[in-house]
Amino acid sequence: MTPHLPADADGATVKAADRAHVFHSWSAQALIDPLAVAGAEGSYFWDYDGRRYLDFSSQLVNTNIGHQHPKVVAAIQEQAGRLCTLAPGFAVDVRSEAARLIAERTPGDLDKVFFTNGGAEAVENAVRMARLHTGRQKVLSAYRSYHGATAAAINLTGDPRRWPSDTGSAGVVHFWGPFLYRSPFHAATEAEECQRALAHLADTIAFEGPASIAAIILETVPGTAGIMVPPAGYLAGVRELCDRYGIVFILDEVMAGFGRTGRWFAAEHWGVTPDLITFAKGVNSGYVPLGGVAISAAIAETFATRPYPGGLTYSGHPLACAAAVATIRTMEEEGVVGHAAHLGRNVIGLALAEIAERHPSVGDVRGLGAFWAVELVRDRETREPLVPYNASGADNAPMAEFAAACKAAGLWPFVNMNRVHVVPPCTVTEAEAKEGLALLDEALTVADRHTASA
């Protein structure tokens, strides 16, 4: 496609206004240089000079249906002409239809949907529901996780983004989830990792006091923490522990849901039904902010005659719900979920395995569907990360050089710590995916220069 550029703006003006007035998230304001983006379509976006980038990040792993899908854009436009907004206390056709379509795709009896404005708010409300349902306060969550940046969600998070906001008194207890490549359990096989991780979780429950624990929350497949696919039997084992002690099981599918792993919800891969599912991002590809909680019958019944103490002005916003309805229907019509599964099996997974053979900087590749991580190391034998944990500044130079090489070649990567995540839109074509993987292959030569064998 040829980038179409706006006639009434230029990149320098846009960037100057940004630098003068926009306060950016997760950033030291004086040290960033945001790209001024002029437009986007499908798997690409471009700057004001017409330089095009293949979006292997799906922005923040949310544009599952790609940029500017015409059916979703048309649905938003039609809804804006008919009914732009309405308070959440009313029954609105697109809100009801969005909830119905989501409930059709959730596992088990998760047939009620509480809408939020995004994933962090979904997590906040899921935890609140669990605490009120059980009358308990503690929530267990894993290290190597991310659940959002709001008050409860950031305390549940298990990566360094939690540290500046960690109150240490939020009723959160962290534990180690399974991750064979960097096993905290000295396991040699996936089966051992599963068994030992479950034993560790059982011990954590026992020592924290089962009767004090409201919920266990897990990302079904952890996202920004490393796309660590759980071993067979692990999620079923967590489900059994929750059932044994009356603990609410929450699966966070904010990133893994809506086709990203090649299923509507990643939980389907393991046949596990939680009590609550949080979602956002891919539900409407982020075209208008939307998230929510899918709720089991038992938890919904808790609030049948008891008011649920939560809600937001824009919960289930009509424009967002119209986008969700159009996204889900389009994904169904165009076979997007099956396409993501095909990409994972037959394109991305195979190519990354070959890339790993060629590059000494690649220690591990793992993933499902359009959801993959490439772990970069200095030494394959010792598995020393290419950069230290939570590196910044000069310590992070090898990853910064690698990311710059990707961008210089026209590939926009998702880079976190010592990893690059391969997370293109679920609608990316085979040709586009292969183009991006070839660019990634070339950029990894930069990472190779920092290995022990260089």
Task: Please provide a written account of the structure.
This protein has a 7-stranded mixed β-sheet, sandwiched between helices. Strands 11, 12, 13, 15 and 16 form a 5-stranded antiparallel β-sheet that branches. 37% of the residues lie in helices and 17% in strands. It has helices at 11-21, 58-61, 70-82, 93-105, 119-134, 151-156, 190-208, 234-245, 297-302, 318-333, 336-358, 397-408, 430-448; strands spanning 37-41, 44-47, 52-55, 112-116, 138-142, 172-175, 213-219, 248-252, 276-279, 291-295, 362-368, 371-379, 384-385, 411-412, 414-416, 419-422. It is globular. It is of the alpha/beta class and 454 residues long. The model has no long low-confidence stretch (mean pLDDT 96). Helix 3 packs antiparallel against helix 10 (318-333), helix 4 (93-105) crosses helix 10 (318-333) and helix 12 packs antiparallel against helix 13 (430-448). A hairpin with a 2-residue loop joins strand 11 (362-368) and strand 12 (371-379).
